[in-house]
Amino acid sequence: MLAFSEGHPPNPPDVSRDIGLLPKAHLHLHFTGSMRPTTLIELADKYGVHLPEALSSGTPPKLRATDERGWFRFQRLYDIARSCLREPEDIRRLVREAAEEDVRDGSGWLEIQVDPTSYAPLLGGLIPAMEIILDAVDEAARETGLGMRVLVAANRMKHPLEARTLARLAVRYADRGVVGFGLSNDERRGMARDFDRAFAIAREGGLLAAPHGGELTGPSSVRDCLDDLRAARVGHGVRAAEDPRVLRRLAEKGVTCEVCPASNVALGVYEKHEDVPLRTLFEAGVPMALGADDPLLFGSRLAAQYEIARRYHGFTDAELAELARQSVRGSAAPEDIRRKLLSGIDDWLASPGV
Question: Cβ distance 236 to 213 under 8 Å?
Answer without folding.
Answer: yes
